[in-house]
C-alpha cells in the first residue's frame, strides 16, 4: 500500500475503483464551498475601502512604466494569497468528508462449487455401428457427440463401457475427461470379437461401476453419498447376446437409484443382402423402468439435440461462493485533512495570516 502522503491517493484511476460505504457524505462537499463563497462576499461587502485616483502622470519613461507593471503584478499575486486560508479549510473539510464516505478497494472472488453427478456411457461397438446413414458412420458420429457432451460436464465423474456380443468396462468413473475422450477416440468395431448386442450385460457393467463408487464413498460426506447416477446407453441393434436380460438389469438399476437414458441411433434399412433392425421396444422398456427417457436419433443433428436434452435434464446444483477482499482507504484522506487543517491553523494564528487578510 502507498504511504498516506503519496499523491497516488488523488489518482482519478484509483478513485474509479473505490466503493464508498457512505456516499451521501460526498454530496456535502459543494455545500462547504458554497458557504465559504458566501462568507467571502459578505465579508468583502462589509469592508470599507478608500479609492484614490492619482491620474495619469505624463512624461514617465518606459522603465518606470515597466516597473509599475511589475509592482502591479506583484500586488495581484500577493492579493490572491488571501485565498490560501479559506482554500486550505475547503480542502481539509472536503477530505474529511471523503474519509467519512469511507472509500474502499474491493476485490471480488467468485467460486462455483458443484458436487456433480456420476455418468456411465454404454457405447455399442458392434459391426452394425459402421452403417453410414449417420456420416461418416454411426459409431464415429456417436463418439464425436459424446466427446462434446463430456466437455460440458466439468464437475461430473464419467465412465465408459463398450459392448457388442460381450460387454467390457473400458474406463471407470473419473474426472480426468481428457483420458476418457482419448478412450472414446480409439473405439472401433474391431475391439470385441464376439458378434451380437449384449445390452443387458452392458447395463450390468455400468451398475457394478456405480455400485462400487457408492461403497467407496461411505466414509465421505453425506452429500457425496447422494450423488445422482445415470446411464446413457447408445445402441442400434436388438439384444441378441449376453447372459443377463435387459429388463432384469433395468430393475437392478432402479433398485440402486440409477436413471437410464437409451438412444437408438440410425435408420431402419433393408436391402437384398442385409437387414438392419432396431428394437425400439426393449430400449423404451428399460428406459421406462429406469425412470429415464428413450430417444431416437436418425441423423447427427438429432443425436446432438438428444445429448443436449440429457445435458439440460441432468444438471447438478451449483453453489456460487463470493469472497470479497475489502481494503479501507479512509485513513490516508483523514491524514491529508489533518495536515491541511494544521496548515490553515498556522496561517490563522501567525502574522502571515494577518498580512494575507490586509
TrEMBL record:
Q: Which residues form the VWFA domain?
A: 118-310
Q: Which domain of life is it from?
A: Bacteria
For this UniProt record, the keywords arranged alphabetically read as follows: Cell membrane, Membrane, Transmembrane, Transmembrane helix
Q: Extract the SUPFAM superfamilies matched here.
A: vWA-like
**Entry keyword Cell membrane:** yes
Q: What parts of the sequence cross the membrane?
A: 20-42, 83-101, 333-356
InterPro entries (UniProt xref): UPF0353/GerABKA_families, VWF_A, vWFA_dom_sf
Alphabetized PANTHER family for the sequence: LEUCINE ZIPPER PROTEIN 4, SPORE GERMINATION PROTEIN
Offer one Pfam family short name for this entry: VWA
Identification of the protein by name? VWA domain-containing protein
Q: What is the lineage of its organism?
A: Bacteria, Pseudomonadati, Bacteroidota, Cytophagia, Cytophagales
Amino acid at each position: 500500500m502507498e504511504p498516506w502522503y503519496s499523491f497516488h491517493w488523488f489518482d482519478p484511476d484509483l478513485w474509479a475503483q473505490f466503493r464508498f460505504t457512505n456516499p451521501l457524505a460526498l454530496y456535502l462537499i459543494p455545500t462547504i464551498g458554497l458557504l465559504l463563497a458566501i462568507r467571502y462576499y459578505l465579508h468583502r461587502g462589509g469592508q470599507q475601502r478608500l479609492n484614490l485616483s492619482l491620474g495619469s502622470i505624463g512624461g514617465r519613461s518606459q522603465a518606470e512604466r515597466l516597473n509599475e507593471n511589475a509592482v502591479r503584478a506583484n500586488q495581484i499575486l500577493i492579493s490572491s494569497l488571501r485565498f490560501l486560508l479559506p482554500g486550505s479549510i475547503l480542502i481539509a473539510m472536503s477530505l474529511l468528508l471523503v474519509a467519512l464516505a469511507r472509500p474502499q478497494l474491493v476485490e471480488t472472488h467468485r467460486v462455483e462449487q458443484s458436487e456433480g453427478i456420476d455418468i456411465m456411457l454404454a457405447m455399442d461397438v458392434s459391426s452394425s455401428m459402421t452403417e453410414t446413414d449417420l456420416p461418416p458412420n454411426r459409431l464415429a458420429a456417436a463418439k464425436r457427440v459424446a466427446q462434446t457432451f463430456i466437455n460440458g460436464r466439468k464437475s461430473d465423474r464419467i465412465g465408459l463401457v463398450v459392448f457388442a456380443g460381450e460387454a467390457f468396462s473400458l474406463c471407470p468413473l473419473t474426472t480426468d475427461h481428457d483420458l476418457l475422450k482419448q478412450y472414446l477416440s480409439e473405439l472401433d468395431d474391431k475391439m470385441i470379437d464376439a458378434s451380437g448386442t449384449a445390452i443387458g450385460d452392458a447395463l450390468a457393467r455400468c451398475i457394478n461401476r456405480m455400485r462400487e463408487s457408492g461403497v467407496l464413498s461411505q466414509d465421505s460426506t453425506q452429500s457425496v453419498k447422494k450423488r445422482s447416477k445415470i446411464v446413457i446407453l447408445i445402441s442400434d441393434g436388438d439384444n441378441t447376446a449376453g447372459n443377463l436380460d435387459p429388463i432384469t438389469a433395468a430393475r437392478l438399476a432402479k433398485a440402486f437409484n440409477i436413471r437410464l437414458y437409451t438412444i437408438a441411433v440410425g435408420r431402419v434399412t433393408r436391402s437384398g443382402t442385409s437387414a438392419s433392425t432396431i428394437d425400439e421396444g426393449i430400449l423404451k422398456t428399460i428406459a421406462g423402468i429406469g425412470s429415464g427417457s428413450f430417444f431416437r436419433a436418425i441423423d447427427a443433428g438429432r443425436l446432438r439435440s438428444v445429448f443436449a436434452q440429457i445435458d439440460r435434464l441432468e444438471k447438478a446444483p451449483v453453489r456460487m461462493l463470493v469472497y470479497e477482499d475489502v481494503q479501507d482507504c479512509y485513513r490516508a484522506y483523514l491524514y491529508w485533512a489533518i495536515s491541511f487543517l494544521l496548515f490553515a491553523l498556522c496561517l490563522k494564528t501567525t502574522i502571515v495570516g494577518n498580512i494575507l487578510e490586509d
